[in-house]
Amino acid sequence: MEKYEIVVIGGGPAGVSLAKVLGKTSKMAIIRPEDYSMIYCALPYAIEGLIENEKTFKSDNLVTDAGAELIRNTVKEIDFKNKVLIFTDNVKISFDKLIIATGAVPFLPPIPGSTLKGVGAFKTQDDLEWIEGLVSKGLKKAVVVGAGAIGIELAQAFSYRKVAVDLVDMGDSVLPNLVDADMSGVLSTELEREWIKLHLKSKVIELKGSEHVESVVLDNGSTIDFEPGQGEECAGIVIFAAGMKPEISLVKDSGVELGRDGIIVNDRMETNIKDIYAVGDCTQFKSGISGQAISGKLATNAVPMAKILGFNLKGQNRSYPGFYNGAATKVGKYFIGGTGLSEVAAKALGYDTICGYSEVTTKFPIMPGAKKKRMKLVADKSTHRILGAQIVSEESVVGRIDLLTFAIQKKSTIEDLSALSYASQPHQSFYPAANIVVLAAEDIRQKQGW
Ligand SMILES: Cc1cc2nc3c(=O)[nH]c(=O)nc-3n(C[C@H](O)[C@H](O)[C@H](O)COP(=O)(O)OP(=O)(O)OC[C@H]3O[C@@H](n4cnc5c(N)ncnc54)[C@H](O)[C@@H]3O)c2cc1C
Known about the structure:
The chain is of the alpha/beta class. It is 24% helix and 29% strand. It folds into three domains: 2-41 and 55-105 and 245-313, 3-Layer(bba) Sandwich (FAD/NAD(P)-binding domain); 119-242, FAD/NAD(P)-binding domain; 336-448, FAD/NAD-linked reductase, C-terminal dimerisation domain (Enolase-like, domain 1), CATH 3.30.390. Strands 1, 2, 5, 6, 7, 8 and 21 form a seven-stranded mixed beta sheet that branches. Strands 10-17-11-12-13 form a five-stranded parallel beta sheet. β11, α5 (149-160) and β12 (164-168) form a beta-alpha-beta unit. α1 (13-22) runs parallel beside α7 (299-313). The termini are far apart. The mean pLDDT is 96. Flavin-adenine dinucleotide binds next to α1, β2 and α7.
């Protein structure tokens, strides 16, 4: 039986990051069943036709050039006592240290009709090829369930490919994990301008059809029907983008401690069992702000978790501070970013929130092409600490969101942000007279009389 110092189950961003840190210094294997590891973030743009499907496939060299061995197989069992993994073809390997990086799988609600043909999710290479294949063959209509970033990006991709699309969500606003309703009104309008039919405050309770899905039943009594008489390949489809659940089937009933959102690890990515670690979407971790367990199923969380574990296994002493969930998406002409807690999320956690707003242009207003840019800042009234920030702009927001995440990580206050030192240039910012972050902080100070 082949023996490895370190074995990683999972070849997603977490597994690849571990290979990069540890591959050259240890006998290490990365295990994954897929032909390709995928650039998931780019999948909607392959459906849209902006890039070819193959561009979303990561090269195996990322793992092998890093010095790790890539084992293309599926683990069916972990023998924790003997430190052995058993694959579905009954081949076994042994390990000194095991890292579980099995990711998350899309959540499909257990409603009647969810196993009908034409109902699926959006994560794997198979999902991509199935959906893209149908679109290329003239798919007429799609229903996307979930108005988070993945659902919205997919709905837009359908619309750009001339597929009629209905977007359904239980919430009363789009992108609720990224921005509050008072920031997302323009986004709903933009989606409708893109011919996406929005059904907010609506829950899918049943899918009807004999073999193939024919109709989607909502809890308000209405239905979304696909045209009858279409051939199976061109009939409508229903895609659930309604959240991810951790892939923890290998460790159920194993003694590895589990929470509602995955494997529980400490800030060094250690599970409760010696020499067993977990990173990425399969884990449950705490918010860096509130300290309470929150969801953080993002590649931008999985990669740092994996790196910290990798450096620690090399002898360093790093710790993971928690999820801040800085993230971004794009809706039509708008770039949207959010970080930390939204006002709704902060209130739900018991914070006494105060919010500030600002609006500037992306360039000096006198410059050609200057566009609007709007920001919301959420802070805690008692400590003045920044809890979250949201930006809707017609230009990229990721740089600003990262700055604000850093401010939150460093426990900055409203006063700190109102004293931010900034840069200004006619092509790249508003006038030196004002900065979007400082303005939002000043808005809070003015309202509070601070
Ligand atoms: C459409 C889409 C768009 C996204 N966009 C963004 C974005 O813009 N920004 C962002 O930060 N995040 C985005 N994400 C989320 C991001 O992709 C995930 O957070 C990230 O992939 C998590 O990485 P991971 O390595 O923990 O798990 P995964 O990438 O899920 O990888 C898990 C791996 O484990 C393997 N595995 C599972 N069980 C077994 C087993 N029994 N045996 C062997 N191997 C196993 C799987 O096959 C897979 O290779 C997006 C996700 C999707 C689906």
